């Protein structure tokens, strides 16, 4: 029996959050979303998550800064950085596990998450 993975979605665009939630919810993930890196850190202090999917460009702290903090405090959380600009090196230098370009290729997202699930089981 597979364990439901908890995913925190961090993006300041409501439509992106809603789309990711809908797609991940029907794929047996428990999702929660917030619109800023600061809210993500507060949420991570209250609830455990297995995966964080974060946008780069948001008001306040950006996604690569968030990835760096998450990985320093909770190295077992799998972090996926997402950006419409080529920010892969910023995310990966900050400790993110993967980077996806926008628009998000959902087949690629699921492939990355499946690899994570296999290695974390």
Report the sheet with the most strands, covering strand number, pairing sense and barrel closure.
5 strands, parallel
Helix and strand content put the structural class at alpha/beta
Strand order, main sheet: write it out.
2-1-3-4-5
Determine the fraction of residues in helical runs and give it as a percent range.
40-55%
Query: Would you count the extended β strands for me?
Result: 5
**Total domain units:** 1
For this structure, what is the CATH homologous superfamily? Response regulator
β content, as a range?
A: 15-25%
Q: Low-confidence parts lasting 5 or more residues at pLDDT below 50?
A: none
Spatial shape? globular
Task: Please report the first level of CATH classification, the CATH class.
Answer: Alpha Beta
CATH architecture assignment: 3-Layer(aba) Sandwich
User: What's the alpha carbon Rg, rounded to whole Å?
Assistant: 13 Å
- Summed up, the helix count is 5
Roughly how many Å apart are the termini?
Answer: 11 Å
CATH topology: Rossmann fold
Look at the structure and give the mean pLDDT: 90
Elements, N to C (H/E): EHEHEHEHEH
Please give a quick description of this structure:
This protein has five helices and five strands; from the N terminus they run E-H-E-H-E-H-E-H-E-H.
Description of the molecule:
There is one protein chain. The protein has 121 residues and is α/β, with parallel strands linked by helices. It has one domain (5-120): Rossmann fold. 45% of the residues lie in helices and 22% in strands. It has 5 helices and 5 strands, in the order βαβαβαβαβα. It has helices at residues 14-25, 37-46, 63-73, 88-93, 106-120; strands spanning 5-10, 29-34, 51-55, 78-83, 98-101. It has a 5-stranded parallel beta sheet with strand order 2-1-3-4-5, with helices on both faces. Helix 2 (37-46) runs parallel beside helix 3 (63-73). The longest helix has 15 residues, at 106-120.
